[in-house]
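quick one, 336 residues, struct below
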Amino acid sequence: MTAPLLVRAARGERTERPPVWLMRQAGRHLPEYRELREEYTFREAIEDPEIAEEITLQPYRRYGVDGVVMFSDILTCLEPLGFDYHIESGVGPVIENPVDGPDDVARRRGDVRDELSFVADLLDRLSESVADEDAVLGFAGGPFTLASYVVAGGVDHRRTAVRTFRARHPDAFLELMERFAGVVAEYLQMQADHGADAVQLFDTYAGVLPPADYEQYVRPLHREILDSVDLPTVEFVRNMGGRLESLAATGADVVGLDWTVDMTRARAELGETPVQGNLDPSLLFAAPETVRDRTAEIIRAAGPEGHILNLGHGVNRDTPIEGVEAFVETAQEWEW
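---
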């Protein structure tokens, strides 16, 4: 059986057209999602496999994307390490028991497969629902991004709290990162066992670290996590335009690019390493013709081998349907 288009691109193969999916494609920009969410809290939606499957499949039915990313959240990995959280409207994630100093890092370690079994159940369902030519995608948050939440107690746009914690308590910071890395690796292995065709590691905020700190604290853990999974892997860290070689050195099969990276330059720097990206999400608010033109520029610059078309970050909540349609259709209609 031929591998899904997205998997072939992740392997660096030449594909007849670029596979396409969007980060955060299952979510707030879809009216059917907003209607369904009126009945459930966010935690209820992600922890009920039947509801999560429906939400996952909504963009698949509407747009015909090539990658179906499971509806979940990066913060699920907090649960096996003893952190409780909730999503507060207008605020975002709130950690109910954040790290209270360096002696509070070593929380109890729960069983990942037991505590996050609802994700395994969701992937089992998706494996039955999604056509063989399309890919089921899993994901997890990276150690630094997860640490930034539990140290700050919630959203910290400058990641000041976790950077300060690293400076004051480097040993405790490293222990916290290693504990997250262990949980994330096991979590991704579980996803592989339950039908994921590829997985993405979102350590979105790690790009705020100085290069030396990224190399010392983050990159070795990323490599450890990605090496533990026998599936195509995508590495995504924002604000790494001048350090793409560091992302490739994690051993990821695919380097995710944010919208600040020039695709032509990225291809020159990364050589044969497959890439994913990288339209600016705000461009989906432009006229459909503009969306098509800018998307075509990215596709041409990336070339026919080893490119997964995506945004440079997630879909914004007020994004017009017409913009997403233009983006996806440009890939679907492409011929090399």
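The chain has one domain: 5-332.
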